[in-house]
Amino acid sequence: MKKIDVVTTSKSYPVYYGKGLFSKLKFLIDKNRLNRKIFIVVDENVHNYHSTKIDSFISGIDSKVCLYSFNANEINKSSSRLNDIYSALIENGFGRDTLIISIGGGITGDIAGYAASTFSRGVQIIHVPTTLLAMVDSSIGGKTGINFDSTKNIIGTFYQPEFILIDTDFLKTLPEEEFICGLGEIIKYSFLTGGEFLKKIKKGLPKSLKLNTKLLLNSIETCTKFKARIVENDERETKGLRKILNLGHTFAHAIEVERGHTIKHGQAVILGLTCSLYLSRKLGIINENHFKEYLSLLLKAKDRISLNFFYPMKIYEIMKRDKKSFDDKIKFVLIIEAGNILVDVEAPANMVLESINNGMDHFLVS
Ligand SMILES: NC(=O)c1ccc[n+]([C@@H]2O[C@H](COP(=O)([O-])OP(=O)(O)OC[C@H]3O[C@@H](n4cnc5c(N)ncnc54)[C@H](O)[C@@H]3O)[C@@H](O)[C@H]2O)c1
After folding, report:
1. Which domains does the chain have, with CATH numbers?
2. Which SS3 state, helix, strand or coil, does residue 147 take?
3. 109 CA distance to ligand 1 centroid (A)?
4. Looking at the annotation, which residues are catalytic?
5. Is the C-alpha dihedral spanning 189, 190, 192, 197 positive or negative?
6. What is the pLDDT of residues 138-155, one digit of tens each?
7. Which phi and psi angles does 150 have, rounded to 5°?
8. 3-class secondary-structure state, position 227
9. Model-level pTM?
10. CA 178 to centroid of ligand 1, rounded, Å
């Protein structure tokens, strides 16, 4: 079984990854001597598609086990759904010796992680990511959260899991548009790492990642390793290092809110990365060759995202109240070249607005 260790100040834990690993879940719970009272928060779509293996896992548990089915969308990543999880835990007699298992994409992982970090002052959690985005990014690093009053992830904690189990078999049922969302984060990592990984992504991208198993596995491994190293050195985003993971995300989160969550997070990341490239160019941070090279990579996803209209000023206003702005100034993560990233960059309003216009214009359908 392949694994990558994440060693943070608060906890060290493994990320197990490979094909068909879900069948090893009980073995790994026993091996890691985790709590026996199990509360599963499962994405209801995932449960529908994968009921045989999830139910078989449940029937193999000889202690208390409860399944909470969750309708994963950004509206439900909320305090009311969180309260439902707390109620289900309490009504079913769960306490401090609980093990929560989240099975689903980033939304399920974020809300289940937040519940785990707060219920009974913190109980154990295992993440079983089932979307590509969650496998390459959101399940790793311990950020949990919910949305509040239409601000994304504004309430949350840092809370590391006991382990993460990535079973690529879950991806067999993942719709193509969700692969594009994972691709958004993978392109982000290729900009962060540069080098060989960027070359592989450029070469492999014309083919759907769903069909390119080798590149898929390589992406999961590379992104996980990269994020693990960043998180190890800056678990709570206090040293600035972890901020590079937000490349494209200041724009992306605002775009998601402006769209009323009708656009998926990963699609918004592709738009956000495009806007970031334009802003990097306007500020003279990136050279023209790199700009064109990276833009063409992002535009490979062009057919999968279509906008009829957008309001740049609204996006800008949402960014201003985003949690990454201090002293009423928005701080951007921008790109000099792949592998060389600048954080905490300020920019004049007119340049930000122009970057939103230029970046998002590529995805407008006429
Ligand atoms: N905590 C972090 O560090 C972090 C990082 C990046 C993103 N995020 C968060 O992650 C969320 C996005 O995550 P996501 O893209 O995984 O979205 P998601 O959880 O909404 O899942 C996307 C869709 O895919 C379905 N699905 C999940 N697994 C499936 C499978 N195997 N087969 C078929 N359908 C499946 C879900 O039901 C859902 O409809 C956002 O809320 C974002 O803020 C968190």
Report:
1. 2-173 (3.40.50.1970), 176-361 (1.20.1090.10)
2. strand
3. 8
4. 121, 143, 185, 227, 237, 242, 246, 249, 253, 265
5. positive
6. 999 999 999 998 788 999
7. 60, 20
8. helix
9. 0.94
10. 8
